[in-house]
């Protein structure tokens, strides 16, 4: 069965993403949530894909390692920080 991943994902797939986030929490990774996982999947794994077989979508989610999502989030923060001004970091700079 093919699903259109560019439209709203079926509820069972969204539930599976939440289960994966919960799995990460059980492994001690509390800062990666279901939104981060979904963002990673759409931005990296499914970037140029319109439709995908349901079994492949499930496999993409279940085989996901937290290090993949962490590396993606790290690069996202670096890109965002590169567009900011030095004044935006004043809270982090010791006086």
Give a nutshell description of this structure:
The mean pLDDT is 90. It contains four helices and two strands, in the order E-H-H-E-H-H.
Describe this structure in words.
It is a single chain. By secondary structure, this protein is mainly alpha-helical. The chain has one domain (2-89). The chain contains four helices and two strands, in the order βααβαα. Strands 1-2 form a two-stranded antiparallel ribbon. Helix 1 runs parallel beside helix 3 (54-62) and helix 2 (34-45) crosses helix 4. The chain is globular. The model has no long low-confidence stretch (mean pLDDT 90). It holds the Pfam family Post_transc_reg. InterPro entries: Post-transcriptional_regulator (IPR025716). This is ComN-like post-transcriptional regulator.
The domain count comes to 1
Shape: globular
**How many DSSP-defined strands?**
2
- Major sheet, described briefly? 2 strands, antiparallel
> What pattern of helices and strands is seen along the backbone?
EHHEHH
**DSSP summary: helix tally:** 4
Which parts are unreliable, with pLDDT below 50 for 5 consecutive residues or more? Answer: none
Comma- or semicolon-separated keywords:
single chain, 95 residues, mainly alpha, two-stranded antiparallel sheet, 4 helices, 2 strands, 57% helix, 6% strand, globular, Post-transcriptional_regulator, ComN-like post-transcriptional regulator
């Amino acid at each position: 069965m093919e699903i259109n991943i560019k439209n709203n994902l079926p509820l069972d797939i969204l539930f599976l993403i939440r289960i994966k986030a919960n799995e990460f929490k059980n492994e001690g990774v509390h800062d990666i949530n279901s939104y981060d996982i979904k963002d990673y999947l759409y931005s990296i794994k499914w970037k140029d894909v319109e439709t995908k077989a349901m079994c492949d979508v499930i496999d993409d989610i279940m085989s996901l390692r937290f290090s993949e999502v962490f590396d993606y989030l790290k690069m996202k923060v670096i890109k965002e920080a590169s567009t900011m001004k030095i004044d935006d970091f004043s809270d982090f700079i010791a006086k």
